[in-house]
Each structure stands twice: as C-alpha cells, then as structure tokens.
Amino acid sequence: MFKGYIIxxxxxxxxxxxxxxxxxxxxxxxxxxxxxxGTNIPNCNTLEKIxxxxxxxxxxxxxxxxxxxxxxxYNGNVIKQLLLxxxxxxxxxxxxxxxxxxxSLAQIVNGNPTVKRLEKVADFFGVSMDTFFERExxxxxxxxxxxxxTSYYIEKIELLEKIIKEKDERIKLLENVNQLLTKHT
Length: 185
What we know:
two-stranded antiparallel sheet, 9 helices, 59% helix
C-alpha cells in the first residue's frame, strides 16, 4: 500500500523545501500535500519524479523490500515479458488486479497506470516496483556519507542543469507559439 507520509519524512530528513519537491514533480502544492496525507494517490510519472528528486527507489514509498536497480521511465512492456516468461494468461493478472477488460491491460502496458494498480501488478509477479522503470542512475540505500558529499552535489548540480535546460526549451517553445499566434491575429 502506498505510504505518502514517507515523502514528508524524506523532506525532513534531507532538509529540502517542499516547494522544490512539487516543482520538480511538476505538480501543485495542494496535490503534494494530499499525496503526503494519503488522500491522493499519484500516477506513475509523478511518483517517479518524486523518487528521482530524492534519489530513492520507488518501492520506498510502499515499505517493500527494496531491490535496487539501475533504472528513468515507465516501461510497461516489462509486464508483457513477465506474462510470457512466467507463462501466465492475461486474464489471471487482470483478475488479480480487479478487472476483466483486456483494455485495462493495454492501458497498464501502454499508458500511465495509477500507482495503486501498478503495485498490484508488482505484487502479482513478486517483483520490485522499480522493475517497471528504466532509470538513468543507481540509487543509494543509505544517507550521504562524507565521502559521498562531492558526488552527491555533482548529481544535484547535473539534475538542476537538466531542469534549467528543460525550462529553457519550454520557454522557447512558448515564445514560438506566441509569435505564431500574434502573426495570425
């Protein structure tokens, strides 16, 4: 079961601002507050961004045994491969997650399933949630030691540079759209 309060614990433990988390995850402050309270379950993209922000595996938010992988984006094809490898009929998985519609399996594999549904799939196969994601870097299970300080800050700087680059690209796109709109009016 999803444990949103763990995000609050990470915020306090890492001494980061809640604003940095919700901005990085590209969600509203109220949404993050509701996720932390447990009144809102994040989708996979949001949860992945939060996990990336803290450099932790996704399973930490479920208090599962953490199987650290070198995994950054959702890959639903892993589910198809698990079904084939384990020779499990689609209907058996669908029944386990509480639906019978094949369209639901397509949405899970090809779309952006809810964390709640993806957790059921992970439980069904007995795998880590991180199995369904391809991340850019491995995760650290422990806090930062003195020897890790330099690499920690280098990672944070690289992450901030990536955010700035993406923001600049969005601004450029908006400026182009604005120019197009002003030409047509």
